[in-house]
User: Which sequence fits this backbone?
């Protein structure tokens, strides 16, 4: 195993270990997403036909709100006891720290999302079993996009006075192409339309977004964290 | 010297705009399908050209800052982004007025409009981020990274016309596939672009002067505190 990969996995394991000991971010994200799912039922008739047409959008709204909670803390949790300084001065590339944190966030978010998906299916009578694997693919790609942008901006805003305000202000506009693609794809798949035709275009947008921003983040993270 | 350049640019811009307004309102006929309202294109298109030119210049200045660490490039990038944001607002406003007359609604959630709005939000986030950071080098570093990330979004806006189905009018200029404007109708767009570019340059120069004065005041204040 290359030293870069080993450092990445060590950071990811560290983050996951400390998360699963407290389950802070996980519990917060999960209960928050369930609360939003309940609130949606007041915004419109949850039993109507219209529900099917907007199901993908709702699901991704839940995902993106829930993700903000855990991503916000990704770098902020290192502020205590100057852990961030210690991490940065460790003899490993900053990109490995970033990638490790991103992987830990990704794993955590996927867990929250799978649970939220099950709750969503229970409450709103959605039928996605027929297209389960394509939906999981879209969730995997969309979540990676959210994770990369979220982790980068979590590092970028970590020292700011108004961190909690600045992070969503910067992150959500950046995420629009990815969320648009993920929402359209998920809605189509939940309505039984398989991947193909127009859909593939959106899948390309989503994949391209992931690829471009992963590359950008890996290049710029050194400037963001160290300077 | 800088004053003199500003006066020359201002004269040029005023003369060009006067001549163009005369040509647009007095000489050019109404358009066959749209009537008089089509004339808004002479503000709309040059504004978007100016705005996007500015965003790309800001990207270059941000990159130069990251390479040289010279705060002069940061001040330039910030000034250009703010001015470009103003032109982006003109694009949105003129587009909405045109949409109200032709489509009957102020805002159509069309891909191009949406992405333009997203782009505006990203650069608004950039301006907000600058306000949130006091330390000049940190501010320069982080906002340069946001500028790079934002510029990638602009490329998605530009590609969106091919990627996404759209009800926004297809490009009418002859540089792309022949174009659809009558003879003599196209040239005022380019002349207005030149006039807007002169105007934008003046605004950038004024903004940079403000920036340098505020830096001077800052250092004076620091000196006063030192005593």
Assistant:
């Amino acid at each position: 195993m290359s030293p870069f990969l080993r450092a990445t996995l060590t950071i990811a394991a560290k983050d996951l270990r400390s998360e699963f000991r407290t389950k802070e971010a996980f519990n917060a994200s999960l209960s928050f997403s369930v609360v939003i799912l309940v609130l949606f039922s007041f915004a419109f008739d949850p039993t109507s036909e219209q529900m099917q047409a907007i199901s993908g959008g709702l699901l991704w709204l839940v995902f993106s709100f829930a993700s903000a909670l855990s991503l916000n803390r990704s770098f902020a949790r290192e502020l205590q006891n100057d852990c961030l300084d210690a991490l940065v001065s460790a003899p490993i590339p900053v990109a490995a720290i970033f990638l490790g944190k991103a992987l830990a966030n990704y794993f955590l978010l996927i867990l929250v999302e799978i649970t939220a998906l099950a709750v969503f299916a229970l409450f709103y009578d959605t039928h996605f079993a027929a297209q389960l694997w394509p939906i999981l693919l879209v969730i995997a790609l969309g979540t990676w996009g959210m994770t990369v942008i979220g982790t980068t901006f979590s590092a970028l805003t970590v020292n700011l006075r108004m961190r909690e305000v600045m992070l969503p202000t910067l992150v959500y506009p950046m995420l629009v192409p990815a969320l648009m693609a993920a929402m359209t794809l998920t809605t189509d798949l939940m309505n039984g339309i398989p991947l193909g035709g127009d859909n593939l275009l959106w899948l390309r947008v989503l994949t391209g977004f992931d690829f471009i921003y992963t590359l950008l983040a890996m290049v710029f993270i050194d400037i963001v964290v160290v300077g | 010297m800088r004053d003199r350049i500003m006066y020359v640019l201002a004269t040029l811009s005023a003369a060009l705009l006067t001549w163009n307004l005369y040509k647009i309102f007095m000489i050019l006929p109404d358009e066959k399908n749209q009537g008089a309202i089509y004339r808004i294109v002479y503000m709309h298109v040059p504004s978007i050209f100016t705005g996007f030119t500015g965003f790309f210049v800001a990207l270059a200045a941000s990159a130069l800052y990251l390479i040289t660490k010279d705060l002069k490039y940061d001040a330039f990038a910030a000034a250009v982004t703010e001015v470009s944001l103003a032109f982006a607002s003109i694009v949105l406003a003129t587009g909405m007025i045109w949409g109200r007359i032709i489509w009957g609604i102020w805002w159509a959630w069309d891909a191009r409009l949406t992405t333009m709005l997203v782009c505006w939000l990203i650069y608004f986030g950039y301006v907000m981020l600058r306000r949130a950071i006091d330390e000049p080098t940190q501010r320069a570093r982080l906002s340069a990274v946001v500028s790079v990330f934002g510029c990638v979004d602009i490329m998605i806006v530009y590609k969106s016309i091919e990627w996404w189905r759209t009800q926004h009018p297809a490009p009418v200029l002859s540089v792309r596939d022949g174009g659809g404007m009558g003879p003599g109708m196209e040239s005022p767009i380019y002349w207005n672009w030149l006039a807007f570019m002169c105007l934008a340059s003046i605004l950038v120069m004024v903004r940079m002067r403000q920036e340098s004065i505020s830096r001077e005041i800052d250092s004076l204040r620091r000196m006063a505190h030192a005593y």
Remarks:
- The mean pLDDT of chain A is 88.
- The CA atoms of residues 163 and 169 of chain A lie 10 Å apart.
- Chain A touches chain B through 24 residues (CB under 8 Å).
